[in-house]
Amino acid sequence: MASSASGTQVRASHILIKHEGSRRKASWKDPEGRVIKNTTRDSAISELKAIREDIVSGKAKFEDVASRISDCSSAKRGGDLGPFGRGQMQKPFEETTFSLKVGEISDIVDTDSGVHIILRTG
């Protein structure tokens, strides 16, 4: 592991919504991928934009939404991915996380896994 003393690590939480174009079309809440296979990328983005607005406006808490909605197993931890360094996440995800300030929420980020919003926590 890279030492965090050199500032090479960040910590983030995310909310992932998978869709028909996702690399793995299954998740903890949709083990057979029935919903995921019928979700278009556009509808996943619309859903995530609405969720992001609720969080930013204070109507919803990031962790609560993540634990209910996120298609990532990190949902069980309120979306927390823990600390990570460069080269551990998909490029768009990594670049966005490193560009956020702590406490800031990203716009929609597109990866092979699906669409995400990322909250940098450290």
UniProtKB/TrEMBL annotation:
Transmembrane segments: none annotated. GO terms for cellular component: cytosol; nucleus. It is an enzyme of class 5 (isomerase). The keyword Isomerase applies. InterPro entries: PPIase_dom_sf, PPIase_Pin1, PPIase_PpiC, PPIase_PpiC_CS. SUPFAM superfamilies: FKBP-like. Keywords: Isomerase, Rotamase. It catalyses: [protein]-peptidylproline (omega=180) = [protein]-peptidylproline (omega=0). It comes from the Eukaryota. GO terms for molecular function: peptidyl-prolyl cis-trans isomerase activity. Residues 1-34 are annotated as: Disordered. Residues 7-122 form the PpiC domain. Its EC number is 5.2.1.8. Residues 1-11 have a biased composition (Polar residues). PANTHER family: PEPTIDYL-PROLYL CIS-TRANS ISOMERASE. Belongs to the PpiC/parvulin rotamase family. Prolyl cis/trans isomerase with specificity for phospho-Ser-Pro bonds. This is Peptidyl-prolyl cis-trans isomerase. It comes from Populus deltoides. The lineage of its organism: Eukaryota, Viridiplantae, Streptophyta, Embryophyta, Tracheophyta.
